[in-house]
Amino acid sequence: MFKYILKRIVVGFVTLFILATVTFFLMKIIPGSPFAGENTKLPASVQEKLMAKYNLDKPILEQYVIYMKDAFQGDFGISTYRTGREVNDIIANGMPVTARLGFVAFVIAMVTGITLGTVAAFTKHKWVDNFVIALATLGVSVPGFLLALLLMIVFGVWLHLFPIVGLSSWRHYVLPAISLALSPIAMIARLTRSSMMEVMRQDYMVLARSKGSSQMKVILKHGLKNAMIPVVTYAGPLIATLMTGSFVIESLFSIPGIGAEYVTSISNRDYTMIMGLTIFFGAFIIIANIITDIINAVIDPRIKLGS
Predict the structure, then answer these.
(1) How distant, in Å, are the alpha carbons of 19, 21, 130 from that of 111?
(2) Please, which residues bridge with residue 78 across strands?
(3) Rounded-to-integer distance, Cα 271 and Cα 288, Å
(4) What span, in angstroms and rounded, lies between the C-alpha atoms of 79 and 261?
(5) I want to staple 117 with a disulfide (CB 3.0 to 4.6 A). Which of 132, 163, 189, 199 is the partner?
(6) Which residues lie below 8 Å from residue 251, measured CB to CB, with a gap of 6+?
(7) Tens digits of per-residue pLDDT, 112-171?
(8) What is the predicted pLDDT for the residue at 66?
(9) 180-232 tens-digit pLDDT
(10) CA distance 126 to 218
């Protein structure tokens, strides 16, 4: 198990390094600079001083070495758009907001998706199974931002049931959390349904039922554990994605999280902010994947044997 975990950590570090490197050079390929945009009217002398302050006047390879050295020490620099504010502070301020919304959406997605998938796998009513399949198809087909706009118009503007700006109370979480959770609900329901149906056909499940155990006991004691492997595999990247922000949803609902910060940084060519958020998002997702791999190896030891 130790070698398995060590291997995953090494692969994670290499992946993060490649991600940071590719992002850095892609930014340099794009024409323009953060101090010479259409909305930035600065004298040439001021622009030169700012370029020197952020090391943008140096050769690209030298810029890369300087940035990676600082980033390795946990210093992502100062935002070029939000003058005087460190990238670390911006992430620290926005992350709790995004994480709370992401966690709520994750819980909704997991509970609803597993419940619907399990019900669809064992129901004797064809219409229930068809409903779950239709919902799953709808969830993966409808873009999240379109659902968010629909929810805002119906429940926010027309019915005035839920607020559509900010996250100051529990009612503010309802619409953005549902918007984030619909697609994961659909995927989790489909994974749970197909996996549960496959598990229930296994010999050990047939033996358990033949011993007179109730259907519910067989499902809870034997079925769910093995059927959850695909769901757990999907849940790792999902919670990382949700808890590091949905760029469009946060922008639509005016949520002051780091997802909205990412959109703003790209629009304003805020190099240090883009790099800092990319590395932060990448690290979060990689850590979540490593934890998921470990959990899967604990659930089914055969996984690590084949890796």
Answers:
(1) 33, 38, 20
(2) 86
(3) 26
(4) 11
(5) 189
(6) 259, 260, 263
(7) 999 898 888 878 788 888 888 888 888 878 888 888 999 999 999 999 999 999 888 899
(8) 92
(9) 998 899 999 989 888 888 877 777 777 777 777 676 777 766 677 777 888 88
(10) 22
Beta bridge pairs of residue 143: none
Q: Is 199 helix (H, G, I), strand (E, B) or coil?
A: helix
Side chain identity at 126, as an amino acid letter? K
Place of tokens 């805002």: 152
Q: Hey, CA dihedral for 108, 111, 113, 115, is it positive or negative?
A: negative
Residues in the chain: 307
pTM for the model stands at 0.81
Structure tokens belonging to residue 24: 């850095």
Residue 8 CA to residue 26 CA, distance in Å, equals 27
Q: Please answer whether residues 258 and 270 qualify as being in contact, where contact means their C-beta atoms are separated by less than 8 angstroms.
A: no
